[in-house]
Amino acid sequence: MRIGNNPEKEKSKISKTCLHRIIVPVYIPNLDIGYFKDGLEILKICLKSLFSTTNNSVRISVFNNGSCEQVEEFLLNLYNQEDRFDQILNSKVNIGKVNAINAVVKSTESLLYTISDADVMFLQGWQQNVEEVFNNFPEAGMVSPVPSSKAFSYYTASTLFYGLFKGKLSFEKVRNPNALCMFEQSIGSSLYKPCHLRNYLVVNNNSGKKAVMGCGHFVATLRKEVFYSSPNKPSDTKISGGSEATYIDIPNDVGGFLRLATLENYAYHLGNVLEPWMNDFNDEEVKKSNEFLSNIYVKSRRLNNFERRLSKFFSRFFFGKFSFLFKKIYNIPKEY
Fold first, then answer.
1. Mean per-residue pLDDT, 156-184
2. Quick one: which of 5, 67, 165, 193 is 20 to 30 A from 158 by CA?
3. Assigned domain for 176 exists
4. Where does the Glycosyltransferase 2-like domain lie (predicted)?
5. Nearest partner of 219 among 258, 181, 183, judged by Cα
């Protein structure tokens, strides 16, 4: 039996929930000795750093992707304490990183979505500087607060075209080489040669505003429009296996958007082992002020269809057989 009318029918329009939403998929199935034993403590650092480095325009969604009871309890308590943490989604099984991200993106309306692994420490200034890159480059679709000198040729055809014909490209000094070394340590493998620690490729918008060309995706901010080009069906892989390329990297590039990073490093990848410096550094960051205005540039642009076709050609040309010519033009070392 039903009595009366549902009052929600009178106000069925859903308004934008926020300007900038952060999505953190979490998979910590146990806290026993092994790969995940420090997972909860590192997750606490991640979320603590988020609350201390963002303003009130941000909202945070956490997808609990089959984590253990202790992690689920921690997240629920934090959800009840923090207003900006406005969404928690629970799955009893791990549905994969991409599917967790899409569950949030397809059910919310924001201008920007920051996608972050659960082992990232955010530093003061990351939000302002990422949003500033979107302001300076309306064609940007993906921006990371962590520059990488090796990412300039990874799904950056549209970015290359922009740098060649709409802006400028230059090979410039890395502002924080130590941050690149710390990223190497966090993944437990050698990634950069000495030349990568000295210089990276920079895109100039012809107005003096710059950003690093390319970025990784353990933490990155995307425009809502990028997801319009993603596959509609769910991913059939939990992590890696090309899922992030298929659902994030390729849609951004073929959609005609730029892939960029901030010049300075504004986040650290922590890995799965808790180290003393992480808590000490995070506490220092929390002490800093995070009062600032959000500067999201609402209007976006992208390369047109003709430019996108040309971008593929120039990408194959300069990042393929003729990469030596590209390096010669921009004074990039051969070993780079």
1. 93
2. 193
3. yes
4. 41-158
5. 183
**Whose structure tokens read 């921690």?**
74
**Alpha-carbon gap, residue 42 to 26, rounded angstroms:** 11
3 inside domain:
no
Cα dist from 173 to 97, 197, 264, whole Å: 34, 9, 11
What are the tokens at 34? Answer: 């092994």
Q: Which residue has the higher pLDDT, 66 or 7?
A: 66
Best CA proximity match to 316, nearest among 186, 177, 155: 155
How far is residue 313's CA from residue 165's CA, in Å, rounded to a whole number? 13
Q: How many CB atoms lie within 10 A of CB 115?
A: 25
Spell out where the chain has E strands: 20-26, 58-65, 85-91, 112-116, 120-122, 140-144, 168-173, 199-204, 210-213, 219-223, 258-261, 267-269
Average pLDDT over residues 284-288: 78
Tell me the two tokens of residue 93: 């099984």
Interval 191-239: pLDDT, tens: 888 989 999 999 999 889 999 999 998 999 999 999 999 998 888 876 7
Q: Which candidate, 24, 75, 28, places its Cα nearest to that of 50?
A: 24
Give the domain range for residue 60: 17-329
Concatenating the DSSP letter of every residue in 77-101 gives HHHHH-SSEEEEEEESS---HHHHH
9 domain-assigned:
no
DSSP state of 155: S
What pLDDT was estimated at residue 18?
A: 84
Report the CATH number that the domain containing residue 218 is assigned in CATH.
3.90.550.10
pLDDT at residue 333 above 70? yes
User: Of 143-147, 240-244, 287-291, which gets the smallest average pLDDT?
Assistant: 287-291
**pTM confidence score:** 0.93
Question: How far is residue 133's CA from residue 145's CA, in Å, rounded to a whole number?
Answer: 10
Number of domains in the chain: 1
Q: Where is pLDDT greater, at 153 or 300?
A: 153
Is 8 inside a domain boundary? no
Sign of CA dihedral 8, 13, 18, 23: positive
Question: In terms of residues, how long is the chain?
Answer: 336
